[in-house]
Specification:
heterodimer, A: alpha/beta, six-stranded parallel beta sheet, 25 helices, globular, B: alpha+beta, five-stranded antiparallel beta sheet, four-stranded antiparallel beta sheet, elongated, binds thiamine diphosphate, binds magnesium ion
C-alpha cells in the first residue's frame, strides 16, 4: 500500500515506540499535523519551539528513550537551535523533525526557508535532508539508531513539504546498514584486565563519573565496582544522581563548584578512573595541575573523548555498562584482595575524612534571611525520593548540585555542557509528560525562569503538575558573583530592575503561586505546593548576594579553591 | 608535522561540508584538500594535507572516523606511499626566455599545453617537492598565474584500502 510521506513519518514513529512528541505547527508541517489527528501519538503543543526541543530532551533524560520534537521551517526550525545544541553537548538522544520548503524551492530564499542542515551540522550527531519519499522510512530508521547508539546525540530530519505529500510504498526496515557507523559496544577484555590490575594495586583510587554512566544506565554496576574496590566516587554535574550522594563513598561533585574533599581527593589520587566523563574544563581547572600524581584509566564509548584534554594511561572504548560488568566479573576472581580493600585503603579514607572535616559542604544559616541552600535542603526533605529535579543555569543550579541529595538515577536533569538558561522548565514539562504520577520540580532562578516562562501555559493546558521553585535573588546571580569577585563589584546589567510578581504571573496562566519571604515560611510553602494538584510556582525571596562556594577560579587548579567570599 | 590523510566517504550530498566544517570548527589546519568519486560511485575519496602534533593528529583521525559518512581514514605518515600533484603554470615567455622555459619543462617532464605569443602554460605532475622546484625555477621568468591541484596519494604495494 502506498502512503504519503507524512503518514510514513507517523507510522515509523509508532514503530519506533514513540508515544509522545513535542512540537509547534506551521505551513511546512501542516500535512503532518493533519495526519496527527488520526494518530495514536500524543502531541504536546509547547509555546515555543525551543521549549519543544528541551521538553523532548527532558523526556529523553528521564526515560532513557529517544525524545522527538517537531517544528516548521524557517523561524520554527531556527527556534530549535538552542535546544538541539543543549542536547548535543550533553549527548542526549533526540530526533528533531523540521519542515522544509518544497524541494523545487530550496536555495531560492523562499518564504520561511532556512538552511537547517547547514545550521545544525556542527550541533547534531548527524542530519538528513530528505529528497525522495522512497528514502524516508530508511532515514527515520537510521536517525533513531544513530541517536540512541554509541555516544547518543540529536539527529535532525529536514523534511520538505512536497516529500510529505508524495507517496511511496511503506516498508519499515528491520535493520540498519551503515558502513561508516559501527560504534564499539564491547570493551576489550585485555584492557579490562589491565585496568583491574591497576585498581588492585592503587593506594589512592578515585572513581570520576560523568554523564556517560547515566546514558549507559550503569548505576548498579558502578555501585558494585565502588563497593568492591572501596573506592571513593566523585561525579560531574552530568553524572549526578548516578551514585547516591549520601553513600559513605560519595565525595559529591568535583570541579569548579565541587566539594573541597572531591577536588583534594582527585588532586592527591594515584589512580583516577574516569567513567563516561570527558575532562571538561569546568571539571579539570588548570590542566597542568589536574590529578598530577595519578595514572588515568579512561572508559568512554566515544574514542574522540579519550586523550582529547588529558593524557591517559589506559584507554578503554566501549559501552560503560558492558565494561563495568567485565571489570566486576574480573574483580570477583580477586576476592582475597578485594575483601581486604577497606583495610588496605584505610589511610586513604582517613585522609579524605580529614578533608571532609576540614571543609564540609555547608553554609552560614540565617534566622532572618532565606538562604537558598536552606530551601534546597528543605525541598530534599519534603520531596519524594523518586522526584525528578530539573534546573536552569546559575547559582541555583550549583546549589542544587551541592545540597540536594540525589538517590536515584535519571532524577537530575540539567544543562551541563551548554549551560542553557531556560532549559529547566520545558525539561520538567517533558519529564512530567513521561511520568505523570511522579513529582517533577524545576529549581529556577528569577532570570532563567523568564527565558521560557511561557511554558506555564503548556503545563496548565496538559495538566502537567510541575512544581517550580524560584530562588529569587533579583540578580543574574552567577554573573553577579563573578562581577563581585573579579570585577570589583561592578554589577553591570546583572540586576533586573523590574521585579516580577511571579505569583500573579502564575495566576495569569491559571496556575498557583506561593511566596516565602522569611525562613520560617519556607517549609510551609513547600508542603502546601507539593500537596496542590496542578502546577505551582514557589517563590523564595532569598538573600541576594549569597555566593556559590567552594569555587575554583577560571584558570586555577582544583587545589586552589576559594572557600569563602566576603 | 605535515600529514597526508585519505578519507573514504559516502558520496552523498553535503559530505564535503561536514569534513571541511569539522576542520574549521575544531581549529584544525587544512593545507590542501582534493576530492572525487572512486571506482565505486557511491564512495568518494578525499586527500587532505594537514599539520599538527601527535595529539592533534590523533583527534583529527578520530573526529573524521566519528562522522557517520566516513567509511575509512588512512593516515599515510610513516607509510610508504606515492604522492602526486598537478600544477598549471602560466609563465611569461619572451624571446630570451622561451628556450629556457622549454628546457626546464623538459627536465621536469612537463608539457606546454597552451601557447600565445607572450605566454606559455606549463603542465607538470609530481610530488609537491618537485612542483615547488619547477615553480622556483620558472618564477624569475614571471609567473602570471598558477593553479595546483593539491596532492593525491596511494599506498605502495599490491594492497588496496580494503586490505586485499
Ligand atoms: C541562555 C543563556 N544566556 C546567558 C547565560 C549566562 N548566565 C549564566 S548564569 C546567569 C545568571 C542566571 O540568573 P538566574 O537564573 O537568576 O540564576 P541565579 O544565578 O541568580 O541563581 C547568566 C546570565 C546562560 N548561561 N544562558
Ligand atoms: Mg537570580
Amino acid at each position: 500500500m502506498k502512503l504519503t510521506g507524512s503518514k510514513i513519518l507517523l507510522e515509523s514513529l509508532v514503530l519506533e515506540g514513540v508515544d509522545t512528541i513535542f512540537g509547534y505547527p506551521g505551513g511546512t508541517v501542516i500535512n503532518i499535523y493533519d495526519d496527527l489527528m488520526g494518530s495514536s501519538i500524543k502531541h504536546v503543543l509547547t509555546r515555543h519551539e525551543q521549549a519543544a526541543v528541551h521538553a523532548a530532551d527532558g523526556y529523553a533524560r528521564a526515560t532513557g528513550k529517544v525524545g522527538v520534537a517537531i517544528a516548521t521551517s524557517g523561524p520554527g526550525a531556527t527556534n530549535t537551535i538552542t535546544g538541539i545544541a543543549t542536547a548535543y553537548m550533553d549527548s542526549i538522544p533526540l530526533v528533531v523533525i523540521t519542515g522544509q520548503v518544497p524541494t523545487a524551492l530550496i536555495g531560492n530564499d523562499a518564504f520561511q526557508e532556512a538552511d537547517l542542515i547547514g545550521i545544525t551540522r556542527p550541533i547534531t550527531k548527524h542530519n538528513y535532508l530528505v529528497r525522495d519519499v522512497n528514502e524516508l522510512a530508511r532515514i527515520i530508521k537510521q536517525a533513531f539508531y544513530i541517536a540512541r547508539t554509541g555516544r547518543p546525540g540529536p539527529v535532525v530530519i529536514d523534511l520538505p513539504k512536497d516529500v510529505q505529500i508524495a507517496t511511496a510504498k511503506f516498508e519499515y526496515p528491520d535493520t540498519v546498514e551503515l558502513r561508516g557507523y559501527k560504534p564499539t559496544f564491547s570493551g576489550n577484555v585485555r584492557m579490562v584486565e589491565k585496568a583491574v590490575k591497576m585498581m588492585l594495586t592503587a593506594k589512592k583510587p578515585v572513581l570520576y563519573v560523568g554523564g556517560g554512566a547515566t546514558l549507559a544506565d550503569a548505576h548498579n554496576e558502578l555501585m558494585e565496582l565502588a563497593e568492591t574496590l572501596q573506592a571513593p566516587v566523585t561525579t560531574t554535574l552530568m553524572g549526578m544522581a548516578c551514585f547516591p550522594t549520601r553513600h559513605p563513598l560519595s565525595l559529591g561533585m568535583l570541579g569548579m563548584h565541587g566539594t573541597y574533599y572531591a577536588n583534594m581527593a582527585v588532586t592527591n589520587s594515584d589512580l583516577l578512573i574516569a567513567l563516561g566523563a570527558r575532562f571538561d574544563d569546568r571539571v579539570t581547572g588548570k590542566i597542568s595541575t589536574f590529578a598530577p600524581h595519578a595514572k588515568i584509566i579512561h572508559v568512554d564509548v566515544d574514542p574522540t573523548s579519550i586523550k582529547k584534554n588529558v593524557r591517559v594511561d589506559l584507554p578503554i572504548v566501549g559501552d560503560l555498562r558492558d565494561v563495568l560488568k567485565k571489570m566486576n566479573k574480573k574483580l570477583a576472581e580477586h576476592r582475597d584482595e578485594t575483601t581486604q580493600a577497606g583495610e588496605t585503603l584505610k589511610p586513604w579514607h582517613m585522609e579524605i575524612a580529614g578533608w571532609r572535616k576540614e571543609q564540609p559542604m555547608t553554609y552560614k544559616s540565617s534566622k532572618t534571611e532565606i538562604k537558598p541552600q536552606f530551601v534546597i535542603e528543605k525541598l530534599r526533605e519534603l520531596a519524594s525520593d523518586d522526584a525528578i529535579i530539573t534546573t536552569e543555569v546559575g547559582q541555583h543550579q550549583m546549589w542544587t548540585a551541592q545540597f540536594f541529595d540525589f538517590t536515584q538515577p535519571r532524577t537530575f536533569l540539567s544543562s551541563g555542557g551548554l549551560g542553557t538558561m531556560g532549559y529547566g522548565l520545558p525539561a520538567a514539562l517533558g519529564a512530567q509528560a513521561a511520568f505523570p504520577e511522579r513529582q517533577v520540580i524545576d529549581i529556577s532562578g528569577d532570570g532563567s525562569f523568564q527565558m521560557n516562562s511561557q511554558e506555564l501555559a503548556t503545563l496548565v493546558q496538559y495538566r502537567l503538575p510541575v512544581k517550580i521553585v524560584i530562588l529569587n535573588n533579583n540578580f543574574l546571580g552567577m554573573v553577579r558573583q563573578w562581577q563581585q569577585l573579579f570585577f570589583d563589584k561592578r554589577y553591570s546589567q546583572t540586576c533586573m530592575e523590574l521585579p516580577i510578581d511571579f505569583i500573579k504571573l502564575a495566576e495569569a496562566y491559571g496556575a498557583n503561586g506561593l511566596r516565602a519571604s522569611r525562613p520560617d515560611e519556607v517549609e510551609e510553602v513547600i508542603r502546601q505546593a507539593l500537596a496542590m494538584p496542578g502546577p505551582v510556582i514557589m517563590e523564595f525571596k532569598v538573600s541576594r548576594e549569597e555566593n556559590v562556594v567552594p569555587m575554583v577560579p577560571a584558570g586555577a587548579g582544583l587545589n586552589e579553591m576559594v572557600l569563602r567570599t566576603a | 608535522m605535515r600529514h597526508t590523510i585519505s578519507v573514504l566517504v559516502e558520496n552523498e550530498f553535503g559530505v564535503l561540508t561536514r569534513v571541511a566544517g569539522l576542520f574549521s570548527g575544531r581549529g584544525f589546519n587544512i593545507e590542501s584538500l582534493s576530492v572525487a568519486p572512486t571506482l565505486d560511485a557511491t564512495i568518494s575519496r578525499m586527500t587532505i594535507v594537514t599539520s599538527g602534533d601527535d595529539r592533534i593528529l590523533e583527534q583529527i583521525n578520530k573526529q573524521l572516523n566519528k562522522l557517520i559518512d566516513t567509511i575509512k581514514v588512512i593516515d599515510f605518515t610513516g607509510e610508504d606511499f606515492i604522492e602526486r600533484e598537478m600544477a598549471l603554470i602560466k609563465v611569461t615567455a619572451e624571446e630570451a626566455t622561451r628556450a629556457e622555459i622549454l628546457r626546464i619543462c623538459d627536465i621536469f617532464r612537463g608539457k606546454v599545453v597552451d601557447i600565445t605569443p607572450k605566454c606559455y602554460t606549463v603542465e607538470v605532475t609530481g610530488s609537491p617537492v618537485k612542483v615547488n622546484a619547477i615553480i622556483d625555477l620558472l618564477r624569475p621568468m614571471g609567473i602570471k598565474e598558477l593553479v595546483r591541484s593539491g596532492p593525491v596519494v596511494l599506498g605502495r604495494g599490491p594492497k588496496g584500502w580494503k586490505g586485499n
